[in-house]
Every structure is written in C-alpha cells, then in structure tokens.
Amino acid sequence: MQHHIRALTGADDPYADDPYCELKQRANEVVLAALPALSAEVRAAEDPLTAAVRLAIAGNTIDAGANGADSVKRIEQELSVACERPFHGDVDEFRRAVGSARSILFLTDNTGEIVIDRLLGEQPPLERTTFAVRGAQVLIDATLADAGFAGLDRLAEVIDNGSDAPGTMLADCSRELRLRFAAADLIIAKGQGDYETLSGEPHDIFFLFAVKCDVAERHAGLPRGTQVLLRSAVENVAIA
Questions:
Q1: What value does the CA radius of gyration of the chain take, rounded to a whole number of Å?
Q2: For 23-32, 35-44, 131-140, 230-239, which range has the lowest pLDDT when averaged over its residues?
C-alpha cells in the first residue's frame, strides 16, 4: 500500500519523502524530555525489569500511523498510567530467557517508542544486544536517524533491516539482518507490526506490543488495549 501511495503521489523515494517527519520528531522530543523521570521510575521500582517492560509496551501506543497526531499528544498521559493497563505475559520467563541468551536481537518499532526502548535495552547485558531499525522511511517507524536521536547507538550496536515494510518481513530484509536473526539466541520484537509479520517464525521470540486492532485482538485472543509480552509458540522453536 505504501509503495502504491508513493507511486500515485510522486513521492517515491522512501529515503527523502517523509510526510510523517514532523510527527516523528515531535514524538522523539516529547519522550526524550520525559526520559530522566522514566529512568528514575524504573530504578526505584521493586522490579526494574517489570517496570521497563510495562513502559516499553506503553510506548507502543505512540502510533501516529494508526491513531494520528493525537497519539503524540497523549504520550505523557499514557506513560503515567502504564502500569495500570491490563497486562498479559510472564516477566519471569522473559527474565530467564534474557539471562541465558548469548546474543539478543532487539527489533524496534516506532519513533518516540524507540526512546523508551532504552530503558528496556539497558536491562539485559548490552554487550550481547544488537538493536535493529527500519531500513527506510515508512509511517512513523524508527530509522537509524531516530536511533541516533534516542541515543541507542551510544549504548549498543544499531543496524537497519534493509526494508521499508512496517514490520519485519524477513524475505524483504537485508542479508545481514537475516543472518543476525538466524544467529540470535533470542529476539525481542517490539510492536504489533512485528507480531503480525513474525508470529509464525520458528525462532525464540518475545513479542512486546499493545493490542490496537480487531485483527490482533482475534489472533492474540486478548482484548484491545492489553499490554502483551508474548513468547512465540515453544513447539515451533528449535532451542539449542
């Protein structure tokens, strides 16, 4: 659909033509300003990992691609009530998987949200984590420029996936991303788009997303608005 829109409008360069530019920059700025307080909240929490997971998933509601500019206006409100939202998942299972993984590939999603991902990314040992962003502009998804603005590149290695799909379609991704994906012991996949494109992949994946539409609601079997920490079907995963 995005390719057709670019062809019809003449804005066919996904690297140069970005109609969401202002929204993306605003989302990044608003969350970066809130980051010190959020970081202090995580450090002071009884379980910092749970707090970081809940905030990271709350960040997934910052989706101007789905919800328009209002999602950017509601950022601070949504983050302030992050731990009050319905939650489905096993943080202790996630903790054990992260602790035993020798290499972690962290697939990011939206702008704004990527700033909050720092809080979760700082929890696992960073020397074992690589962050991946989109390979070109699409909707409000984060690119290398956004990762630099968020400071992820100062924490760990950041790569782009070589694709302009609003999810992680492995067949459309670069060879490097596919190799990194195959070699990683654990995948952390942010956002509903990654859940939609990767939920059938035979790999150990933890999906972190907010249920935002009827299709995801039916597929995940969880009501809209739920914060989800969902592991890929274990029977489909070949774990060494």
A1: 17
A2: 230-239
Distance, in Å, from the CA atom of 150 to the CA atom of 112, rounded to the nearest integer, reads 8
Average pLDDT, the chain: 87
Confirm if 230 and 211 have CB atoms less than 8 A apart: no
For the chain, give every domain's residue range.
Answer: 2-236
Quick check: 56 pLDDT over 90? Answer: yes
Burial string for 100-139 (b: 16+ CB within 10 Å, else e) reads ebeebbbbbbbbbbbbbbbbbbbbbeeeebbbbbbbbbbb
What average pLDDT does range 207-232 have in this prediction?
A: 93
Q: Report the DSSP pairing between strands 104-107 and 129-133.
A: parallel
Q: Residue 192, CB half-sphere, CA atoms under 13 Å: how many?
A: 24
CA–CA distance, 221 with 66 (Å, rounded to integer): 20
Residues 98 and 184: their CA atoms lie apart, in Å, by 11
Chain centroid to CA 211: 13
- In this structure, which amino acid lies at residue 164? D
198 vs 107: CA distance, rounded Å: 11
Element (H, E) at 40: helix 21-44
CA distance 133 to 149: 13
Contacts of 102 (CB under 8 A, 6+ apart): 128, 185
CATH topology of domain 2-236: Rossmann fold (3.40.50)
